[in-house]
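re the bet — no i am not wrong, look at it urself. input seq straight from the record:
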Amino acid sequence: MLEPTVSPRPSVVALAASLVFLAACQREEAAPAPPPAPAVSAPPVVAIGPAPVLDRAGLLQAMDVAASAYAAGKDPGGATLAGRRFVIRQAFGCAGPAPAGRSTVGATGGDGLAAWSWGDKGKSLKLTLAPADWTGSPMVAGGADSWEAAEGFWLPRPWLHTDGCPGVPSDPAADGATAASPQTVGLAAVFEEDGSRLGRRNGRAYEFTVRAEGDQAPVAPTNGYRLVLEGRMAAFADGRAIRCRAAGPDQRPVCIGAVQLDRVAFEDAQGQGLSEWRPG
């Protein structure tokens, strides 16, 4: 005989359900909260400023590297120099006035070297710089199809990277006057076919006269004068700013930098401006 099944009371069922629900809530509350997502930071902004202006030391160092690479038969480089600004100061007339009878202008224009000489009866000093005509020079020929002319400026004593006069006097044991070393480093101011002609010298020298004050004659400088060349590096047809050539492996290469000149100036040894020229 089957015994009757006793159903649980409704209150007991409700209590059990409440306990199950409460336990589930406690488990959910006990679960740790997920860690916050890491903040995504923007990459740092790197500001690239303009390349530093080349001075005499920086330009001569680049010329040395190009000469060594050329002599080794390697790529002389120089493409990164195109467009760089430069301000070159170099001393001239450190040993005194130019020799008597020295001509700064020849068949190929000037000699590309600054010098000073005495004026009439020693009452004035004359500073001169006659650029050389390098338009047909093998160093510049074929440099760029748009170039119409090139005027040359030598940078004497390229082994001296400072812009002052040499600190070593002439060797007293030397027999007579010593000749200067051949020029091996220079700048070619190039001019475009359709560019302005105001900056061209066309054989004319840069000149400035230091005159006497009253009855007092000018005094010869004890530390020479300074030539200032300012502008921007240009590029030959291959994109490089420097070109080197040598007649043989036992000769130091001659290296020329293509430039666009913005300013030529004469200064005294203390940096006081005497005269300047700008195109236009």
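see?? Residues 56-95+132-166+181-202+228-277 form one domain. told u. also The longest strand covers residues 254-268. so pay up
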